[in-house]
Amino acid sequence: MIELRTPDEIERMRPAGAFVARVLEATRAAARPGVDLLEIDALAHRMIREAGAESCYVDYHPSFGASPFGKVICTSVNDAALHGLPHRYRLRDGDLLSLDFAASVDGWVADSAVSFVVGEQASPEDLRLIETCEVALDAGIAALRPGAKLGDVSAAIGQVARGAGYGVNLQFGGHGVGRTMHGDPHVPNDGRAGRGWPVRPGLVVAIEPWLMRGTDEIVTDADGWTLRSVDGSRAAHVEHTVAVTEDGPLVLTARG
Ligand code: MG
Description:
By secondary structure, the chain is an alpha+beta fold. It is 28% helix and 25% strand. The protein has helices at residues 7-30, 37-51, 124-142, 150-163; strands at 54-55, 74-77, 80-82, 96-105, 108-117, 174-176, 183-187, 204-207, 210-212, 218-220, 227-229, 235-237, 240-245, 248-251. Bound molecules: magnesium ion.
């Protein structure tokens, strides 16, 4: 069931969005060569405690997860696309890192992700992959306005991805966000314009394009969580939580 939020409820979701943005800024700044993924998780955990927020991940245990996630942030490195379980690994110059973070503040959730290259030695192919995800996210957000259909959002994302020559995986995509992290509707990263649920004011969704350089297929790592590209090619993932207002889309997790 799709739940629509009142303008007042959307106002009350802003602190969660701002907090998630702040954690992604801080963890991104901390992700330098030589830093361990567990230190990044510890930093996010500390910020959650200090803010009196609640992690959406630590007890998360869906049907596809081997056990509760146990950490508070997803750290997906290089060929890891989604759900990267933080582990003892020191980041290297040139690693492509995706950070995905969701938390609840005063009972409202926000969910966001960012991808970037650690250190100085970014390959042009990685930068193009990340940029394509960002352009796809912007296109999806721009399509999320009253009067549109959710298929318009999916089509906008898919068009950017396919136009840049990447395949699109439809197993994981955007989702409703509210009191919990995952709700209706599902927002696939490709689809047909003019189809699907009508976009109305009060709809709050996470839009999250993710792409891999060489494939659209994933495999689950032995850790039971991390999803990797089947061919070992690098992956990127970006995400924002967006509320639909009478005036258009409002990005709740916008970073400064
Ligand atoms: Mg997320």
